[in-house]
Amino acid sequence: MKKILVIYFSQSGQLTQALQATLAPLEKCNEISICYEQIKPKTPFPFPWTYTQFFNVFPECVHGVACEIEPLSTQSKENFDLIIIAYQPWFLSVSIPINSFLQSEEGKKIIADKNIITIIACRNMWLNAQEKMKLAIKNAGGRLQGNIAFVDDAPNLVSLITVLAFVLAGIKGRFLGLFPKFGVSAKTLGLTAPKFGEIILRFLTGENSVPLQQSLNEAGAHRIKSNLLLLEQRGGVLFPLYANYIAKMESGNSRGRLLRVRIFGILLPTAVLFLSPIITLISRIAPLIWKNSFKKEVEYYSGNALR
CA dist 126 to 90, 123, 254, 261, 301, Å? Predict the structure, then answer.
């Protein structure tokens, strides 16, 4: 009997749906036992968020500040053959609840000397967050074997509008009757996700003749777009600067900090709105000029190595 521990945090249920769809083939296997462990912050994060609440967690996300989480069940202390960590990126970083698990002594003991698979459900940008996840797993002594990224198929600017409608108002359907439904498509969850589960099952039973990540990539686990890669690289440089600017106001609810948060909450969507067309144009040209460099970047982010 192979035993799997699934560590996850889901506010809206989208990540839970992705998990259920992916693990369906393993749930049906009599030789597999799955234990689910949901991370629960002692002070729950709101959903939907208010505009200020949403942007006020930005500095702590970027700086990797942990929150207090509830103790895990005694079952999670057992010996598992595989650990699956399912999470969402928040502001190009690992979500605070999952990052808090990774930083905890309890979490480090669970990860140590174990094979790890990560599953992401997000709007479209996950590269920077996964880099931080790779580092945390490495520091804890785990072995990252595979990653699956579920993303919204809508164009970047469209998904920017629908994600804000979703997290700030809980609207997942067609926003204003014009924009598409936010989130990972039902087609992806129904057709593609179970294929990932079958690949993981073969990995567990030793039937895979090629590395797990290679098999997952061939099934569509990673779809890295050049324009989003460039946007993430810019964000990875600028976000720490913005986070420092806000965090200089120590109190999370001080007037000075909230003013800076509101300014950032206006600047970020505005910057994405204006930069996206420019970055998209550059992303069409740059790979032609720096073909080898772009190829290496895509290959790197498609794997589990850490620079």
Answer: 9, 8, 31, 23, 10
**Cis peptide, bond prior to residue 48, ω within 30 of zero:** yes
CA distance 164 to 76: 35
Task: Give φ, ψ of 69 to 5 degrees.
Answer: -120, 155
Over residues 208-260, the pLDDT tens digits come to: 778 999 999 999 999 998 888 988 988 899 899 999 999 887 667 788 899 99
Answer yes or no: are the C-beta atoms of 7 and 86 closer than 8 Å: yes
With contact defined as beta carbons under 8 Å apart, do 120 and 183 qualify? no
CB 122 within 8 A of CB 151: yes
Q: What is the pLDDT of residue 291?
A: 75
pLDDT of 269 reads 86
Greatest alpha-carbon pair distance for the chain in Å reads 59
Q: What would the pLDDT profile of 44-98 be if each residue is shown by its tens digit?
A: 999 999 999 999 999 999 999 999 999 999 888 889 999 999 999 999 999 999 9
Please give the Cα distance from 197 to 200 (Å, whole number): 5
Residues 6+ apart with CB under 8 A from 210: none
